């Protein structure tokens, strides 16, 4: 099998020169919005990881109830006197964990279904019908129903959001994989007796990896939005802070109408993450597309 792998690899080995990854990275660096957005995502990830070093865990009660932003409380306090800056910092950890966890699970399911449907023609019809049915379902009511029945927890949110997010990934991956499986080097691998697993790992998955990379970022940002929406409805994990939980507490206490800071800062965090993820996805798409690449290479 090793001799077959070496022979196939040699047959399809590209000519020497800049790799597609290096050309994409070179073009991505020329996009200032993409770099700033990527930097913002890195900062949010670092905040999530270093939350215990940035702020104490918000618990109990405080003396300054509904105090506005000040030097003592940068983002103000809530109806129980708890620091909102600490809530936003610790909420970053939960929101990012749910977003990345749900995105990872949705990507695994979506890539498996999308690539499987494109490569195995006998399964394409059944898998395509299943994806179409999933996409036609009313997602938000079903997410609310399943989350309410399963009970509020971070694990429940990750699974529920992933279950209703993978069909979009599957459709995008399938559309990208369909022309790949008909290329000559894939047919040559089949003629030379390469097993399906080797062809998928060596040729099909690398070809759809750019779409997978974009899907990870976009799906994670949508998962954070979904988590915030479910938590705002009271279906979040009551034992942990998230940006949606902060909004839920502000709405339940009636502070939304009288104390703008209780909703502004968690909403701003959600907005920054979604906008940054969108800009990174757009910049990456432009960087890997030879027609829109700004470095003059093809």
Topology:
Blueprint: H1 2-12, H2 20-29, H3 32-49, H4 51-54, H5 84-119, H6 121-136, H7 139-150, H8 154-163, H9 166-180, H10 184-191, H11 196-232, H12 243-253, H13 261-288
Strand content: under 5%
Query: In total, how many beta strands?
Result: 0
| Tally of domains | 1
Topology as H/E string?
A: HHHHHHHHHHHHH
The parts where pLDDT drops under 50 for at least 5 residues are: 4-16
GO cellular component, one term: plasma membrane
InterPro entries: BP-dependent_transpt_permease (IPR050366), MetI-like (IPR000515), MetI-like_sf (IPR035906), OppC_N (IPR025966)
Transmembrane segments: 33-55, 97-120, 140-166, 204-225, 263-284
Pfam family, one: BPD_transp_1
Walk me through this protein's architecture.
- The structure is a single chain.
- The chain is elongated and about 75 Å long.
- The chain is mainly alpha-helical and 298 residues long.
- The chain has one domain (34-53, 80-288): MetI-like fold.
- 72% of the residues lie in helices and 0% in strands.
- It has helices at residues 2-12, 20-29, 32-49, 51-54, 84-119, 121-136, 139-150, 154-163, 166-180, 184-191, 196-232, 243-253, 261-288.
- It contains 13 helices and no strands.
- The longest helix has 37 residues, at 196-232.
